[in-house]
Here is the input.
Amino acid sequence: MAKIFYGWWIILASSALTTYNGGILYYGFTAFFNPILNEFGWSRAATSFAFSLQRLEGGIAAPIVGYFIDKLGPRKMSLFAVTIFGFGFLMLSRVDSLVSFYIAFLVISAGHSAGFYSVGAVTVANWFVRKRGRAMGFLTGGVCLAGTIVPLLVWLINLYGWRRSLVITGVGMWVLGIPLSLVFRHRPEQYGMLPDGDSIVRKNREPPEDTAGNDEETSPSSVSAQRMPEEMGLTAREAIKTRSFWLLAVGLSISFMAMSAVFVHIMPFLESIGISRERAGFVVTFTILLSVMGRVGFGWLSDYMDKRYVFCIALALQAIGLLFFANIRALWHIVIFLITFSPGYGGPIPLRPAIQGEYFGRKQFGTIQGLLLSISTVSSMTGPPFAGWICDVTGSYRLAFLILSAIPAIGIILFILIPPARQNVK
Here is the structure.
């Protein structure tokens, strides 16, 4: 029986870790939004601003985190992230003011930025080259199960209150995250393998122990004697001198703005138009579950056709979905939103690192990824408070999501302007 390439085990561990992280923060915090709002009486814009602080901190930290992932390896970064993230949730359970709420969110953000998807994407990009699109699709496709955590959070909050529920989720991060972090390995060459499992020379069935504490790459003779896959390998300094880098960075920012607003305000919006809290939680669940069509499907497709055009299709679906979301007046409108926005939202998630790898290679993948994400922070941090402010002023979210539905069209133009990878020169 053929041995399973270790890169697939890394995908499985990273996907499970990111699923729990996304389920309790990115997707799941919408379940905590109204209970916290009701207890303290803060405005929606002020409460949403915590997510902007999180994204601001994440944007500032992203290049630093990317550098340390390249330098220290993914295992140490993941263990650090899991520890800080869980502690942040415990802090959040004790807040008694808007300031302490913001501080707790910054701690959570520090943990979130240091690991999870950032670590997973870098590690998977190092272990896969030819199959990078589909590998990223499987990595992010598993995260769709994060949606199933949202109804569980609603149940926990109804049963124990939002404070105890935060404690439970924070401790859960430690229990799950620490063992999964130990699965990470930096590069296949360190263990006598090549990317994509093209040549596996190790004979032992168990994954090897690290030969260096800092996961620095070694060059086993059994690997160096074989031909590596051809791909571009730019340093971060070289990458930022290309037109492709800046078009990609701004195009990604466009897609992040609408997505961040939707997942902070989706439950408050649906509740505001008369949909029950439980049903709204299931809408979040199905939005994420159905996004697997975009994550896995578009990731796989990107290995066979131009990744730029695949990304444009995803952005077009986002725009259509948001247009319907802004005009929801009946339950069947939600169905149309789900079948358009969900794959449109899911597609860019694996496509971003796949495009980055195609244009800039593996040499400093983590550092370049950090730079791209830091630039994307500006729009992603404006989305949630913008939608909250519009609701505070007009009494409805509809205008906010109508405006946001036009944003992905700008991203489509930017991705069309990115030159083909072979023309990615300074």
Q: What stands out?
A: The domain at 6-200+229-423 is CATH 1.20.1250.20 (Growth Hormone; Chain: A;). The chain has 20 helices and no strands. The mean pLDDT is 82. The radius of gyration is 21 Å.
